[in-house]
Specification:
Layout: E1 10-16, E2 20-27, E3 33-40, H1 43-53, E4 60-65, H2 72-76, E5 82-86, H3 101-114, H4 126-156, H5 160-166, H6 171-179, H7 189-226, H8 238-248, H9 257-263, E6 269-270, E7 280-281, H10 288-304, H11 306-317, H12 322-343
Parallel strand pairs: 1-4, 4-5
Antiparallel strand pairs: 1-2, 2-3, 6-7
Helix pairs in contact: 4-7, 4-8, 6-7, 7-8, 8-10, 9-12, 10-11, 10-12
Amino acid sequence: MTSLADVVEIVIGVDTHVGTHSAAIIHAGTGAVIDEITVSTTEEGYQELLDFTEPHPALRAWAIEGTGSHGAGLTRLLDDELVIELDRPARMKRRNGAKSDPLDAVRAGREALSRTLNGTPRGNGDRQALSVLLAARRSAVDAYTTAQRQIHGLIIAAPTVLRDKLRGHNTAQMVTIAAGWRINTVWDTETRTTATILKTLARRVRDLKAEAAVHEKAIKTIVNSWRPDVLDIHGVGPIVAAVVLCAWSHPGRIHSEAAFAMLAGAAPIPATSGQVTTRYRLNRYGDRQLNRALHTVVLTRQRYDDQTKTYTERRTTEGKTPREIRRCLKRFIARQIFRQLEHQHA
């Protein structure tokens, strides 16, 4: 397909928000606005939107902004139709700085028509379950990491009687000791208060670590039942596999391994100037969680994989920096993972 206009007669652009969705029906051949509507984000509103589009040709496509967030409810109802995922518009791309929901709906439809390659929404089911579990686990990990830093900070200025109890212990041991403290009534106000807060933080760390472990176990169960072959890739564990599967979603959504690398922010970006014509720089765009997952695989292989160690040494002798070497390894790993994901469905 070279253009969406070659296969459909109309495109329905949808600008999504928490309480309302604005839709505009765009003629695929001319880009003219046929009709517009704004509905609420309820079952009745979604049905009103479907009834609004019913009289128009069946050869149509939906261009929806935020299919994984505000537009998720509408997207689920369009399983049998062609749905295109769009990003939020950049301010500079808005016509003369104009901004309104109907204008954004028109822009969404016309932008889908102007592209030669359009993205499809991520799938639901196992992928969405992994996405929810990853978000919950990430929140728990971030929270107990913050609590651990607070414990270390409070211990520095804590009364001597408390510091002596925790001196010489690592973080895990300090958490265990502080969580089991009994508050001595003969302590002064400062000591009692500090001990109470340290005990509270330690128990918070313990509970959040247990919560994160439960989420990780659920993630591993889903990955093993959906795509256990991804875990066979060296350096890929349950969390990395879950992040990769959430980004990939389903076969055919990402049209090539180069596109997958670009999505991961691992595709090389030329940084040439003057007589320097072979230099590339890091890609700061793309899915940063997926890029972080690839980074984890790279570090694991550089430590435990002999071939990666040999490659790293060779590239170092050629004058490459550690950052450039990791970029090259990320690109290779992105290719390997994508081919593994698509191989089962070839």
